[in-house]
Amino acid sequence: xxxxxxxxxxxxxxxxxxxxxxxxxxxxxxxxxxxxxxxxxxxxxxxxxxxxxxxxxxxxxxxxxxxxxxxxxxxxxxxxxxxxxxxxxxxxxxxxxxxxxxxxxxxxxxxxxxxxxxxxxxxxxxxxxxxxxxxxxxxxxxxxxxxxxxxxx
Amino acid sequence: xxxxxxxxxxxxxxxxxxxxxxxxxxxxxxxxxxxxxxxxxxxxxxxxxxxxxxxxxxxxxxxxxxxxxxxxxxxxxxxxxxxxxxxxxxxxxxxxxxxxxxxxxxxxxxxxxxxxxxxxxxxxxxxxxxxxxxxxxxxxxxxxxxxxxxxxx
Amino acid sequence: xxxxxxxxxxxxxxxxxxxxxxxxxxxxxxxxxxxxxxxxxxxxxxxxxxxxxxxxxxxxxxxxxxxxxxxxxxxxxxxxxxxxxxxxxxxxxxxxxxxxxxxxxxxxxxxxxxxxxxxxxxxxxxxxxxxxxxxxxxxxxxxxxxxxxxxxxxxxxxxxxxxxxxxxxxxxxxxxxxxxxxxxxxxxxxxxxxxxxxxxxxxxxxxxxxxxxxxxxxxxxxxxxxxxxxxxxxxxxxxxxxxxxxxxxxxxxxxxxxxxxxxxxxxxxxxxxxxxxxxxxxxxxxxxxxxxxxxxxxxxxxxxxxxxxxxxxxxxxxxxxxxxxxxxxxxxxxxxxxxxxxxxxxxxxxxxxxxxxxxxxxxxxxxxxxxxxxxxxxxxxxxxxxxxxxxxxxxxxxxxxxxxxxxx
Amino acid sequence: xxxxxxxxxxxxxxxxxxxxxxxxxxxxxxxxxxxxxxxxxxxxxxxxxxxxxxxxxxxxxxxxxxxxxxxxxxxxxxxxxxxxxxxxxxxxxxxxxxxxxxxxxxxxxxxxxxxxxxxxxxxxxxxxxxxxxxxxxxxxxxxxxxxxxxxxxxxxxxxxxxxxxxxxxxxxxxxxxxxxxxxxxxxxxxxxxxxxxxxxxxxxxxxxxxxxxxxxxxxxxxxxxxxxxxxxxxxxxxxxxxxxxxxxxxxxxxxxxxxxxxxxxxxxxxxxxxxxxxxxxxxxxxxxxxxxxxxxxxxxxxxxxxxxxxxxxxxxxxxxxxxxxxxxxxxxxxxxxxxxxxxxxxxxxxxxxxxxxxxxxxxxxxxxxxxxxxxxxxxxxxxxxxxxxxxxxxxxxxxxxxxxxxxx
Lengths: 153, 153, 408, 408
Ligand SMILES: Cc1ncc(COP(=O)(O)O)c(C=O)c1O
Ligand SMILES: Cc1ncc(COP(=O)(O)O)c(C=O)c1O
Description:
The complex is a heterotetramer, with 2 copies of chain A (about 150 residues) and 2 copies of chain C (about 400 residues).
Chain A: H1 3-7, H2 10-17, E1 30-36, E2 41-50, E3 53-62, H3 65-78, H4 83-96, H5 131-148
Antiparallel strand pairs in A: 1-2, 2-3
Chain C: E1 17-18, E2 21-22, E3 24-25, H1 36-48, H2 59-78, E4 86-89, H3 92-107, E5 113-117, H4 126-135, E6 138-142, H5 155-158, E7 163-169, H6 181-190, E8 194-198, E9 217-221, E10 232-236, H7 238-243, E11 254-257, E12 262-264, H8 278-294, H9 296-314, E13 320-322, E14 334-339, H10 344-353, E15 356-357, E16 359-361, H11 366-372, E17 377-381, H12 388-404
Parallel strand pairs in C: 3-15, 5-6, 5-7, 7-8, 8-9
Antiparallel strand pairs in C: 1-2, 4-10, 9-10, 11-12, 13-14, 14-17, 16-17
The structure holds pyridoxal-5'-phosphate (2 copies).
One pyridoxal-5'-phosphate sits at the interface of chains D and C.
């Protein structure tokens, strides 16, 4: 597989073209926005939290296949998880993308076991300028979660 | 004679150390100031004009040997001359210094015949950065003469 | 096709490989590559004559001053101007900020209007927004025709005595459309407004003579015309420069400094506080020498031919849409496009794998992106060193992008 | 004597001849010469990686961005700072103007005071004068002791809550005197004033660590520390940079641009509108690499030894007066002097005939000249590449000046 085919895997293009949970939430939720001014990617999301659990989420914005697919996969991954689990996932994702240091969360023996579809984004690491595309959704999520737990602190 | 000895002739050092007509005029006169910000030279002069004739002049300011000597020699040269003659002298001086284009006013057969002591400043031409030192007094004079004849126009 | 092909040998970077392919550099609207003569001029300056300017009585300082002021004369005469009205700045952005702060702050007030176009680069928008905020003025926008040129048909509607500045670019860095210099110029004059021409994309690509275009200020950057980074120029009419306040204080721009107040040096030095970009001026002069030797007419012709070819070839690609004039006499060699549902950023990545450098993004023109209702565009931009084969490679690579994105 | 002599081979210009003599370059306070490594770094950048930064998804643009941002990290760590608080500017002058306009305009008002010293360079005076005029603040001056250091003995008299800014240089470019960073810093803190350090002559000549000196802002220029023209740096405390307004609008410094208003990018990019000096940043980084390899401690020691020798030799010349501290622990290697009644400009001309480059004039410090009651001074300034023999040549040439002026 060429580096490009590695980057633009089937599953990524599918999430890009059919993003999960696009739209906005009606009920109580927190909202956060992020953008990459240099490339024009914009990302925003609503997160509904109840008793420390992410009960629903929705994403808005526009951007390249990587930023959109990363956001869409993230939506799939976080709904139903606790805030702590979502934060842990964010950390694992950023380690996988070499954005933060740490031991790789990806088990080569059992592909997809830890991060599911998200592991398809590994190909991005070969394209350093695109890493920030993959990261945008997660940085925005962190802000939303901080906001959701602001009252707790 | 070395280029330096050529530049710093006896007569120039004499005018530098014993400038003619230093001070200010008491009676009616016009005043003009000039400076070279890059080297700090400052020059100012008073000119008393009566019936188109320069009847007296005085200089102030401070600067290098070239600017002071040029000013001092100029004082000697202009007092007693008509405004038109002083303007003509200014032009001739600037031609000699290659500041403006024209045929050399200096007659090699009869040194000093046209510009008198001022011809000693010819050595400055070999030191292009110093030409503006020699020029300062004359530019200031031009301004003073313009001012003196302002009513006439 | 006019052949400047042999010039490619003057640009060392063009023989470099990128991802295993020979570099195809189609990003000259962002910055241009440099010929050896420009690099050598700067190197020679540093190795032989490097000194600070204007301040010294020693030989090196004199040489440096003559080279710096000589560069000013060359850059000025390249645009038909006088050196005394040509100010060296850090680039176009700084030049326009000079105008906005130095002229605008004192001459604009509550209710005044600054007429711009929706196609402006942020460099010709944000400074005006800042001055508008300080003075109570507002920005008024002209929009675009169907062919992406500035729509001046409803100029009447926005043109009145409240318009104090008309600021627009000579060529859009997104659509490639040429600015309506004559129409906007006349309109501005009819209400006594100041005319500011952002010539960052104009001066590099065609002959420009300030005695022939009726503008008050013009700004451009060396790095977009074969010169180095770190320098550009602001040209202004003598009266305008006189009435403009300096926007930086410091050495070299003063006449006399007292404890509480100072007076300023004459134009252009009034606007050049501190040690200027000396080596950069030397490189800038070498760049205009190079351009002059090639001939701006030849460069303009070459780019027109190349653009004609590119528009033709791009039209063969299904689902490809060009955002810019179809008529090559209304445009320069900067071509923005979108391809099916492939995001421009993805296009750039795919092309880069073939060694082709194009830009993707909002090109510092976000209001235009919003107006065009696109998140971003991909942009290929040509200069004198580009050749038709590079257009062919671009087309091949775009076809490959379709394949990768599974578009039949 | 600490021997950096072998470094001279790295500076091509040092083997050039001036008026038939080998160049003796004693004008490093104006600008320094460049080692081959700095010139090569810029040349390599242009030949291999030249592209605009931050804007692209192609390989060259990515390389250029990494080199530019990598340069920021290097320059920052050279002064013990974080890259995020290190802004690239055109030079010291632009950096201080940023502070004066960006911070001063919003934070100063009628009756406020800006405390400066009489020894400041115009770059650290004129911007404050301009801001004072806009805001109604005024400048208050500290003068000098008999040994030409800043006289802080009557600090009490001028220090009160009205003082909002204390701005001074780390080393005078005229007297060579080191600035009383500790004393003025403490004084400023005691009244809650902002501390601005003009480090144009400090950072090039001795180790400086912003975590060890208590200042809010610090400015310096690459060209005075072996780097290229066209670039310098502004360092500021994070909180101060946050509360500072940008002084230029344009591309790269924005977050979001709407038709009437915009928001700004985070620091440091907020202060870097438009295409930055990219090649210059690369050269700047190479310069700090070079300085780091030699060791700033070694450079400081070398200059101290050379200055000691120079002061000793100069004291042998009759009628020569040094304007600067006698104690070498209070000063750097910049020596201003006058010789009998020979005007400094004449001294410079005479020395230049022997290939010796010194500066003559007011050194962009006219208030100091007036205070010292001199029309100008001659100034010899040393750097790491100077050697004692050059001091000897200076002394010989000064003796010749006496002869030419007929002084016994
Ligand atoms: C003490 C001091 N401050 C500021 C400056 C201004 O630096 P630049 O001209 O590089 O902006 C200089 C150099 O001329 C200087 O010596
Ligand atoms: C039309 C236009 N105006 C202004 C600029 C800003 O130029 P610079 O970044 O050199 O200041 C650019 C380039 O980016 C441009 O294309």
